[in-house]
Structure prediction request, 229 residues.
Amino acid sequence: MRRTPPSSAPSAAAFQTAAPRTAADDIADHLREEILSGRLPGGALIRQDELAARYGVSRMPARDALRRLENEALIEIHPTRGAVVAPFDPDAIREIYALRALLETEALSLACPRLTEADLDAAETALARLEAERDPARIGALNSRFHLSLYAPCGNRRLIDLIDREHAAAERYVRRLLTGLDHQDQSQTEHRAMLDACRQGDTKAAVAILRGHLDDGGRRLLAVVEGGA
Prediction:
């Protein structure tokens, strides 16, 4: 039976905050979806003035939205060319998945002993929704929700923020992995095994499964991108 952790251990809800929506939020969300869905392909030019006119805003919200997407590695801002959609990049895949492995295994090793039944149920719910989901626009978000449900009790907000940022950078690759490479069944098997290990309180096994899960996903993506597919 899972031991109830001290009451001071934060739950997943402890990391959820709300903030007022801004024009930059809306622009960034729309552009992000266009990039993740492939409607804006790698190399596409995004002009700040045209973006501001399209959404009926000043240049400042448009610029802020572009900076956010640059931080998520979805666009690159060049001094002369302006904003360009980032291509699928083997080096970016290596960097993102190497960072994810470092950050997420540390978060899970800290969080696993603190997981409550409520945390595990939240992860179970996200996993069930992910198994049933067929909309590519939702798959990446649900995948991230499952993982973060298990990491949130780690007690390190900065670590969670770093993981969240890398998930945003990885989402276009995760969509490609889960919707175009026939990898979703294997990924879900690994998710289920990781959740079962967490339910048993087996931190070592859960971390090993997570590491293998990330290593395999990164290798599959590299094989496709480097093969020119």
